[in-house]
Amino acid sequence: MLLLILIYLAFISLGLPDGVLGSVWPVMRLELGLPLASAGLLGAVGSIGTVASALLSYRLINRFGTAKVTLVSVLMTSLALFGYSISSTLPALMLCAIPLGLGAGSVDSALNNYVALHYEARHMNWLHSFWGLGATSGPMVMALVLSLNLSYRAGYRTLAALQMLLVFALLASIPLFERPKQHDETVHKSSKAKGIKHKALPFALLGFFLYCALEVSTGLWAVSYLVEVKGLAATQAALYGSFFFLGITGGRILSGFVSMQLSNTKLIYIGLALCLVALFLLCISPLSFAGYSLLVLGLGCAPIFPSMIHETPRRFSIEASQRIIGLQMASAYAGSTLTPPLFGLLGSGIGLQWMPLMQLCILLLLFLCMLLLDRLTKVHTL
User: Fold this and answer.
1) End-to-end CA distance of the chain
2) Closest CA to 178 of 71, 75, 74, 283
3) What phi and psi values does residue 33 have, to the nearest 5 degrees?
4) C-alpha–C-alpha distance, residues 377 and 226, integer Å
5) What is the pTM of this model?
């Protein structure tokens, strides 16, 4: 139980930095005299680091183990956040963004695989709900620091100190990771090793890319859609936009309990069906219902990502899972990185009124990927 709590805390720490830069950038850029677009550059540098570390995680974990990789990753994140607090130029901030991204990709791959192998599906869903808690808490910590008339630098130092506390906790818990755990029964029934050359792997990677494309595009452009297309006031649209993330976080807590009765694949298809209903409602519903449409969309997204990860050892074997999960995380981060600018270009060219249709196309492609993946790995969907 102690180890599981530490894993949950590690995922809170993974989420802590994710929303901070966006929330503090208006203050930060004015103090440093940087252009507005510089935040996108920092995000791109961090994303490249995240993809690179996710791809390398297989070799690192095989050599050093999950505990040490997680420990060093959280330490890198802490040092990067402290670096943000003392940096005064864009090149210095970009330099700090590299270890921030490297740390995120490694810990994400390491802990996702560890939980997929050693814990039931409910813990995977709850694990990702704790990421949401971290992503929500980071901006709140920064806002609290700023409300005390302190600099954003003090906010970054506070977040760095919180990460460092986890480093000490992980340092003391290294032996716990080495203890043999009882695998989930579904993992025990996994077929023999199919390896990295399995013909279903491209569909698994594309599935993660498409899911993150759907989630990130909604999070980034839904509020703009409500304002520019639906004519909603900006403050109300921002409130409705938060319903999407509330649906994801709350839905993953709920999915943890539902997964005790339903398989991962059933949860994935239920989530896809809810997303389809939500996009339909978003197009035709009155303004007063727009927020609830985004809430339903968040609930639909909630079980998809954790369930796809937890199903990996059963689809591709325990032996191949760490390497494949590293590839899946890299594909997921690539989807998160490439989709926002693509949606921005499409929105500028053809208008945001087509956003639900574009998301529907992504959703249908994701549905086809899941069907092909299930067929090729002989997973029953009913």
Assistant:
1) 33
2) 71
3) 70, 40
4) 40
5) 0.82
CA angle 56, 7, 309 (to 5 degrees): 55
What number of residues does the chain have? 382
Report which of 292, 53, 106 is spatially closest to residue 284, judged by C-alpha positions: 292
Q: Which of 58, 170, 64, 62 is nearest to 106 (CA)?
A: 58
Enumerate residues 6+ apart whose C-beta is below 8 A from 45.
Answer: 94, 97, 98, 101
Q: How far apart are CA 96 and CA 79, in angstroms?
A: 8
Q: Which of 288, 295, 285, 278 is nearest to 236 (CA)?
A: 288
Contacts of 338 (CB under 8 A, 6+ apart): 213
Sequence-distant contacts of 188-191: CB under 8 A, at least 24 apart: 189/314, 190/313, 190/314, 190/317, 190/318, 191/317, 191/378
Please state, in angstroms and rounded to a whole number, the distance separating the CA atoms of residues 77 and 140: 18
For Cα atoms 246, 118, 120, give the angle at the middle one, nearest 5 degrees. Answer: 45
Return the SS3 of 150.
coil
Radius of gyration of the chain from its Cα atoms, rounded to whole angstroms? 20
Joined together, the tokens standing for residue 244 give 């999407």
Domains of the chain: 2-176 (1.20.1250.20), 191-376 (1.20.1250.20)
Q: pLDDT tens across 244-301, in order?
A: 888 898 999 999 999 999 999 999 999 999 999 999 888 887 776 777 888 999 999 9
Q: Exposure of 1 by Cβ count < 10 A (0-12 exposed, 13-18 middle, 19+ buried)?
A: exposed
The three-class DSSP label of residue 380 is coil
pLDDT confidence of residue 342: 78
- As a whole number, mean pLDDT of residues 128-147 equals 86
